[in-house]
């Protein structure tokens, strides 16, 4: 999932082979030499490369290195300047003025201006694209001059910076690139690396943008290889065929901690995995039946099976250690309570269709544990494993009893709860609706006092768990490994993969 945040979307476009040639009338910038590329193994192929339309984490792993946003999160997930070098908010909190960074160019050589920001944001809003909910409070986006943008909001919006900079789904794109119809297969951004080519089913090659506004990358480019099997990716890393991977078998983590030939990083994340029961289907429209499932699953066994203990079992979305954390421990593994709740709801033996995707093997593993957990309760779980494109279609059409998925790259508490649990949330596939939750989540979007805002989300999160909109399972860790001669790279809690400061000893660009 994320940055992805893994936001659920309905558009899936098949990636095709394309090359960087003749796609613009602008004078291209110096993109360097890709012969000394850093080779990164990722677990799947991007569905497409339009940051405003894709929802796939694999796409955002690539796009993090191609596009920029106005602001972006630092290592502590605090928002910092990026394409906007400064900003201020009006006294009434209704106008945000962003001063853009001068001298920035797109990969095709065209200058970056305020009109690019307006076009990018209006595209998301006007076409109702995947992240339109990030602009729910926005009433106007306008260019005051070539280097100044004003975003007008209808009410105080404490999470605006996170909304526009939290992940590359809010990237600033090139109008020419969009209108040519090439952005999904040949993206043009302002980032440290430019798209060069794609070989479907195999790899994507980026090449260094020597004119990058932060300074030229230290490697000639990045080659993303698609290796779905973690053990294969790790073998390729150990054999020197790749330099970096985030496809590390969790069962090998303990062993790899003692492997001096590699650098292993296990970083606590804000990501979470969950189950959602379709409340449009009986008996899952009864909260007692949903609670029975929450009591009937063994989170410890799921964590052991899926992550070999590298994840942390959780009953709410936000993990301990996060400043927005809320303590909650209602759902112990208790089959007696589960049976009682099923009896109270009048639920006898029942079949449950569980939707998972083969692109996330941990989901398939967890599904098998859950099926074993629920069988003694008279709940027969029929696991339906599909590709990610089909998974998206099925969840959007409501064709499931239960689904499992993860949300990745969350930062602000609104990211964890609004789209998923508000009655009008864009990712509320389970059809949860609670007026008090709606009120609290709406209030959280306008409350500028941090302590008061924390209390609003604490109350909302508790009701969401009590009423079982989601059954939260665990917070995974970001697990990455790389070769010893790779420096300048940092594993991040939000899962963002940034190679702009990475260096391979003996391979720096000139």
TrEMBL record:
CDD domains reported for this sequence: PBP2_NikA_DppA_OppA_like_11 (cd08516)
Record SUPFAM superfamilies: Periplasmic binding protein-like II (SSF53850)
Domain Solute-binding protein family: 78-426
InterPro entries: Peptide/Ni-bd (IPR030678), SBP_5 (IPR039424), SBP_5_dom (IPR000914)
Pfam families: SBP_bac_5 (PF00496)
Cellular component, GO annotation: ATP-binding cassette (ABC) transporter complex; periplasmic space
Any GO molecular function: peptide transmembrane transporter activity
KW Transport (keyword) present: yes
Alphabetical UniProt keywords: Signal, Transport
Record bears the keyword S-adenosyl-L-methionine: no
A biological process term (GO) from this entry: peptide transport
Family label: Belongs to the bacterial solute-binding protein 5 family.
Entry protein name: ABC transporter substrate-binding protein
Species name: Mycolicibacterium novocastrense
């Amino acid at each position: 999932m994320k940055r992805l945040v893994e936001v659920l979307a309905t558009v899936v476009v098949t990636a095709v082979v394309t090359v960087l040639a003749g796609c613009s009338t602008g004078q291209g910038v110096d993109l360097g030499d890709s012969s000394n590329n850093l080779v990164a193994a990722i677990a799947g192929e991007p569905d497409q490369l339009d940051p405003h339309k894709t929802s796939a984490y694999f796409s955002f792993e690539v796009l993090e290195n191609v596009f920029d946003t106005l602001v972006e999160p630092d290592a502590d997930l605090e928002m910092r300047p990026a394409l906007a070098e400064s900003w201020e908010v009006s006294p009434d909190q209704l106008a945000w003025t962003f001063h853009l960074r001068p001298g920035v160019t797109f990969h095709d050589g065209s200058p970056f201006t305020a009109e690019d920001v307006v076009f990018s944001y209006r595209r998301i809003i006007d076409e109702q694209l995947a992240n339109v909910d990030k602009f729910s409070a926005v009433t106007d986006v306008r260019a005051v001059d070539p280097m100044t943008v004003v975003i007008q909001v209808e009410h105080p919006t404490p999470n605006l910076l996170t909304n526009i900079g939290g992940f590359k789904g809010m990237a600033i794109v090139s109008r020419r690139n969009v209108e040519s119809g090439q952005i999904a297969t040949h993206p043009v951004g302002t980032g440290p690396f430019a798209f060069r080519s794609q070989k479907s089913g195999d790899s994507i090659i980026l090449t260094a943008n020597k004119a990058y506004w932060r300074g030229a990358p230290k490697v000639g480019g990045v080659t993303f290889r698609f290796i779905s099997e973690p053990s294969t990716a790790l073998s390729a890393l150990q054999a020197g065929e790749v330099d970096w991977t985030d496809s590390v078998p969790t069962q090998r983590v303990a062993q790899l901690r003692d492997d001096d030939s590699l650098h292993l990083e296990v970083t606590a994340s804000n990501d979470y995995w969950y189950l959602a029961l379709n409340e449009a289907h009986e008996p899952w429209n009864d909260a007692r039946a949903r609670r029975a499932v929450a009591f009937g699953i063994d989170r410890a066994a799921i964590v052991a099976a899926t992550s070999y203990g590298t994840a942390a079992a959780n009953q709410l979305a936000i993990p301990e250690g996060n400043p927005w954390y809320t303590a909650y421990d209602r759902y112990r593994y208790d089959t007696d309570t589960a049976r009682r709740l099923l009896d109270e709801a009048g639920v006898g033996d029942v079949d449950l269709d569980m939707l998972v995707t083969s692109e996330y093997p941990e989901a398939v593993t967890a599904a098998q544990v859950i099926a074993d957990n629920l069988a003694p309760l008279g709940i027969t779980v029929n696991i339906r494993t599909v590709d990610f494109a089909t998974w998206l279609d099925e969840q959007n059409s409501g064709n499931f009893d239960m689904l499992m998925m993860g949300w990745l790259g969350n930062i602000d508490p609104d990211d964890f709860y609004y789209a998923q649990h508000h009655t009008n949330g864009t990712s509320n596939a389970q059809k949860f609706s609670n007026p008090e939750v709606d009120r609290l989540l709406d209030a959280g979007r306008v409350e500028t006092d941090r302590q008061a805002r924390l209390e609003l989300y604490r109350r909302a999160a508790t009701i969401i768990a009590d009423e079982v909109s989601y059954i939260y399972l665990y917070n995974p860790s970001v697990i990455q490994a790389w070769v010893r001669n790779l420096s300048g790279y940092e594993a991040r809690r939000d899962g963002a993969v940034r190679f702009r400061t990475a260096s391979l000893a003996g391979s720096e660009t000139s």
